[in-house]
TrEMBL record:
Residue stretches spanning the membrane: none
Domain HD: 263-380
Organism, scientific name: Dysgonomonas macrotermitis
Cofactor: Mg(2+)
Residue ranges of every copy of the tRNA nucleotidyltransferase/poly(A) polymerase RNA and SrmB- binding domain listed in the record: 186-245
Domain of life: Bacteria
Gene Ontology molecular function, alphabetical: ATP binding; metal ion binding; nucleotidyltransferase activity; RNA binding
KW tRNA processing (keyword) present: yes
Protein name: Poly(A) polymerase
Gene3D superfamilies for this protein: 1.10.246.80, Beta Polymerase, domain 2, cca-adding enzyme, domain 2
Length: 476
């Protein structure tokens, strides 16, 4: 079958394709575009990453292509892998020789031999990723689809080309990839393929944490991430890679009082937030906002089920989870911790009689992340009762207005107390120590509580008075 003229024009024309085609012909090499680039044409997802496979030495073809392009091309050769990459304008083209792979049980790194196009298609993970388009002149645009990948694309199906048990056992990362594609594309995993994931789930242990988290993050960033998380759960993979999330499952009832199932609640919050933001870390805050509920769950005869301090305990659990999953231990993690720690606060500002001081304190503590915090809190409303949802959302609108009014008036969001620690030491002739810290916080508190305005002179007067109560007076 040949690709229609429109698609050839749109996706396989231009200087780089002309050059690849003529270089391959001159060298007498069969040459194909393959994998994700071809798949994405049919999904109307234009991409700039092109994989080219040639029956012969991929590196040699890449060198010839780079020579022909001349100016503006960047060639990188990876001799050990038998691959080469060309960057030209906004395109990235990977060249590789067609290969046959065989695996050993302990590793997902295959033993590689030269092979035919067919061998190369056999080693691909899914039928939709095994499509190839010929780039040689006389067969330009010919589609090679040995496993019915096109039909699977039309029917929105993820299926392995060969026996799924072998495909997944050989390289268990493919299980994560399959679920990731299902979540990204909204495709179903064909039952045989799905069952094989369940059967081979324990093989995930030979995959590095870094590769697992790459795929998990792609699931988190997919349009409706619950699709991927539910598949991970159903296949048993989630328990292995993220047991803390599975621990949220279950809704206990005592004396007729129940609580919600926090696993499904968390997935709804994640789906909700994904409608509002593509920020990976804000989505992670949604995943982790209730992570300490199992650890903090108690039954109280008067209050029913309680989860006291689950926000703070959750904040403390995050570094351990990030470390194990090889998520970054930097300011991204701190941001997630901060949102999880603060996620119960905005709702306390709903009441009419809430003080300006409480609003100022939250503005100060959340700083620039206040909008993200509000997005998280709004996503956290998952009641099935639409009236309730509307009422809660309206309450948060009121909180937003209160914060806006106060910020305009007092500018506390990112404020630094007007007198810092060094100056306090200079004024009173103090050495560094706890006293300095206490005096400094007393100024901050006085400003947040509205006792004094956020100005130098007022802060100075206040400081002198406060210091006098502990027997200190200015030395200059
Ligand atoms: P995306 O680029 O959207 O992440 P992709 O399918 O293009 O998805 P790449 O990692 O770019 O993924 O890989 C390109 C192609 O290489 C795939 O389409 C597939 O044919 C093949 N491939 C990648 N990883 C594997 C794997 N683990 N097992 C088998 N084939 C793979
Ligand atoms: Mg790709």
């Amino acid at each position: 079958m040949r690709l229609d003229e429109d698609k050839i024009q749109k996706h396989f024309s231009g200087k780089i394709f002309d050059i690849i085609s003529s270089a391959a012909d001159e060298m007498n090499l069969e040459c194909y575009a393959i994998g994700g680039y071809v798949r994405d044409i049919f999904l109307y997802r234009p991409s700039k990453d092109i994989d080219v496979v040639t029956v012969g030495k991929g590196i040699d073809l890449a060198k010839a292509v780079a020579n022909k392009i001349g100016k503006g091309v960047k060639l990188s050769v990876f001799q050990n892998f038998g691959t080469a990459q060309i960057k030209y304008k906004d395109l990235e083209v990977e060249f590789v020789g067609a290969r046959r792979e065989s695996y050993e049980r302990g590793s997902r790194k295959p033993f590689v031999e030269d092979g035919t196009l067919e061998d190369d298609q056999n080693r691909r993970d899914f039928t939709i990723n095994a499509l190839a388009i010929c780039l040689n002149k006389n067969r330009y645009g010919e589609l090679l689809d040995p496993f019915g990948g096109l039909e699977d694309l039309e029917n929105c199906i993820i299926r392995t080309p060969l026996d799924p048990d072998i495909t997944f056992s050989d390289d268990p990362l493919r299980m994560m990839r399959g679920i990731r594609f299902s979540s990204q594309l909204g495709f179903d995993i064909e039952p045989e393929t799905f069952d094989a994931i369940s059967r081979n789930k324990d093989r995930i242990e030979i995959v590095s944490k870094e590769r697992i988290i790459d795929e998990l993050n792609k699931i988190v960033l997919s349009p409706k991430p619950s699709v991927g998380f539910l598949l991970l759960d159903k296949t048993g993979l989630l328990e292995l890679i993220f047991p803390e999330l599975v621990a949220l499952k279950g809704a206990e009832t005592k004396d007729g009082v129940g609580h919600k199932d926090n696993f499904y609640h968390t997935l709804s919050v994640l789906d909700n937030i994904s409608l509002k933001t593509d920020n990976l870390w804000l989505r992670w805050a949604a995943i982790l906002h209730d992570i300490a509920k199992p650890a903090t769950k108690r039954w109280d005869n008067r209050l029913g089920w309680t989860f006291h301090n689950h926000n703070f305990i959750g904040e403390k659990m995050i570094p351990g989870i990030f470390r194990r999953m090889k998520l970054p231990l930097n300011e991204k993690m701190k941001y997630v911790q901060k949102l999880v720690g603060l996620h119960m606060r905005p709702v306390t500002l709903v009441e009419d009689e809430v003080t300006d001081s409480a609003v100022r304190r939250l503005l100060f503590e959340a700083g620039d992340n206040i909008e993200d915090l509000m997005i998280l809190c709004e996503a956290d409303i998952t009641s099935k009762n639409q009236d309730k949802v509307r009422r809660f959302l309206k309450n948060f609108q009121i909180v937003r207005q209160k914060m806006k009014d106060i910020e305009e008036k007092d500018h506390v969001r990112n404020f630094q107390p007007p007198i810092d620690g060094q100056e306090i030491m200079d004024i009173f002739g103090l050495a560094p120590g706890a006293e300095v810290g206490r005096l400094k916080s007393s100024i901050k508190d006085a400003i947040l509580d509205g006792i004094i305005p956020n100005e130098y002179e007022a802060a100075y007067q206040y400081l002198v008075k406060k210091a006098a109560t502990i027997g200190l007076s200015p030395v200059k």
